[in-house]
Amino acid sequence: MARYTDSVCRLCRAERTRLFLKGERCHGAKCAITRKRNPPGKGPRSRTRKLSNYGLQLREKQKLKRIYGMLERQFRNVFAKADRMGGKTGDNLISLLEARLDNVVFRMRFASSRSQARQFVSHGHILVNGKRVTIPSYTVRENDTISIAERSKRMVIIKEALKEFTRSGVSPWLDVDPDSLSGTVRAIPRRSDVTDIADVNEQLVVELYSR
Fold first, then answer.
1. CA dist., res. 39 & res. 1, Å (int)
2. Which of 20, 146, 150, 153 sits between 20 and 30 A of 200, alpha carbons compared?
3. Residues whose CB falls within 8 Å of the CB of residue 135, separated by 6 or more in sequence, listed in order
4. Domain range for 111
5. DSSP 139
6. Can you spell out the DSSP letters for 145-208?
7. Are 132 and 149 in contact (CB under 8 A)?
8. Each residue's pLDDT expressed in tens, for the chain with a length of 211 residues
9. What predicted TM-score, i.e. pTM, was given to this entire model?
């Protein structure tokens, strides 16, 4: 499957905000946003033009898509599913994105970034209800148990990522036992539960796909 292999710092600069694509490493003076405030590209004047309504909608979609590390077709499929559900499409979209297995592994602090969590899942380090799942886009359900495979529990990189659990805990819709390297999905999150992407306006994404 195709995936983005270029510098992720360019993506943050393009959106003019920290997307935390490298996890906690995005904090500090070395962040590309701090060092280079202009978006990437050769034409400084064209990069500072006022965006049209379509441009604003597109940038919001790109921002959300990049936060969760998805390609266009994957993202469009998730949106189509959210649109078929009852209620607000924007809220459904965020809930579906948060319920992806790679995102849940990241939220449980077993990985320091979503891209690292995606790799853990693909390499067979993650179990769902005791069974190995290697599909990062797998949708978790309420009361599902997510755990680290027995052969992977000694991985230093996972223990390093769990230090963030000590510092800031986990989202209220999750329970994590750092000693057993396992956690439970208490509930599928609502939009109000996802506070670290508060600056994302998902309604603009709905308007873009409704054109």
1. 28
2. 146
3. 101, 121
4. 100-188
5. B
6. EEEE-GGGTT-HHHHHHTHHHHHH---TTEEEETTTTEEEE-SPPPGGG--TTTT--HHHHHHH
7. yes
8. 445 555 555 555 555 565 556 555 545 555 555 555 566 655 555 556 788 999 999 999 999 999 999 999 999 999 999 999 989 999 999 999 999 999 999 999 999 999 999 999 999 999 999 999 999 999 999 999 999 999 999 999 999 999 999 998 999 999 999 999 999 999 999 999 998 887 899 999 999 999 8
9. 0.80
Q: What CATH number does the domain containing 109 carry?
A: 3.10.290.10
Fill in the DSSP letter of residue 39.
P
CA 186 centroid distance within chain: 19
- CA dihedral of 61, 63, 67, 72, whole degrees rounded to 10: 40
Q: How far is CA 192 from CA 14, 23, 63, 94, 181, in A?
A: 26, 21, 19, 10, 27
